[in-house]
Amino acid sequence: MKLEIKNLSKTFDTKEAVKNVSFSVNEGEFLSILGPSGCGKTTLLRMLIGLVKPTSGQILKDGKDITNVVPSARKMGFVFQNYALFENMTVLGNVEYALKIKKETRATAREVATKLIEKMGLSEHINKKPSALSGGQQQRVAIARTLALNPDIILFDEPMSALDVATRLSLRKELKDIQKEYGTTMIYITHDQEEAFAMSDRILVMDTSVAVQLDTPENIIKHPANEYVEKFVVENLKIKIDSLSKYIGVSKKK
């Protein structure tokens, strides 16, 4: 088991953002955390990476308690929703930055960064600054920068929410290809049911501050845990399918 979360909670003043959440993540798994805005999923992710301190509970990685370990020592990567690139640096500068400040990776920083930039299809943009890139290209830079440090786990905070449909579809495939090639464990925050079902090995469905079901996409469709999962996940997916079926000639299932 790569990651185990035990009764994790976070309270801000009197508001319970996350309440007694427990789940596990397998080695090499793509796990989506699916829920509406404000349900606590981003707070949960920030506790996993170490940016927010839990009020109570435990985070175990490879069997070791990392609840109070600093982010830099967790060997996790984080891809932010707003990319968080250095605007004064080129694509190459952004990707090699973290490698250059570590003594053990300084000598190979340029080579590693250049290969990752090529892998993400950004070679022709290597000397451009973020302001000269599209949103999708900036997101690819952010992913390459995270991969450069070879993390055990990569966490994504709604990384495609601001991108157009074609770019989102392309990045979905690239993320799955990266997961297969590197064997990296990925935890992906989203409010989009279709996105979660298209990419995930398993999905953790959240209601306000609590986890309500963790299962494979197929089992969630077949056996929703409660009425909330039925409405938020299953019915919303059916609405999307039905709205498209008349255009693509697919018979509606009743």
**What is the helix content?**
25-40%
Q: What is the name of the CATH class of the largest domain? A: Alpha Beta
Radius of gyration, CA atoms, in whole angstroms: 19 Å
Tell me the β content. Answer: 15-25%
* CATH-derived architecture of the largest domain: 3-Layer(aba) Sandwich
Determine the structural class based on helices, strands and strand pairing.
Answer: alpha/beta
Low-confidence stretches: none
Count of beta strands: 10
- Shape descriptor: globular
**Strand/helix succession:** EEEHEEEHHHEHEHEEHH
State the domain count: 2
Q: Could you tell me how far the N terminus lies from the C terminus, measured between alpha carbons in angstroms? A: 39 Å
At the fold tier of CATH, the topology name of the largest domain is Rossmann fold
CATH superfamily of the largest domain: P-loop containing nucleotide triphosphate hydrolases
Q: What is the helix tally?
A: 8
The main β sheet shows up as:
6 strands, mixed
**Spatial ordering of strands, largest sheet:** 6-7-8-3-9-10
Query: Would you tell me the overall average pLDDT?
Result: 91
Structural features, described:
This protein has helices at about 40-50, 90-100, 110-120, 135-150, 165-180, 195-200, 215-220, 225-250, and strands at about 5-10, 15-25, 30-35, 55-60, 65, 75-80, 155, 185-190, 200-205, 210-215. A hairpin with a 2-residue loop joins β4 (about 55-60) and β5 (about 65). It is about 40% helix and about 25% strand. The strands form 2 sheets. Strands 6-7-8-3-9-10 form a 6-stranded mixed beta sheet, sandwiched between helices. Strands 2-1-4-5 form a 4-stranded antiparallel beta sheet, covered by helices on one side. It starts with a strand and ends in a 6-residue tail after the last helix. The longest helix is centred in the C-terminal third of the chain and has 22 residues, at about 225-250. The protein has about 250 residues and is of the alpha/beta class. It has 2 domains: about 5-75 and about 155-250, Rossmann fold, CATH 3.40.50; about 85-150, no CATH class. The protein contains 8 helices and 10 strands. α2 packs across α3 (about 110-120) and α2 (about 90-100) packs parallel to α4 (about 135-150). The model has no long low-confidence stretch (mean pLDDT about 90).
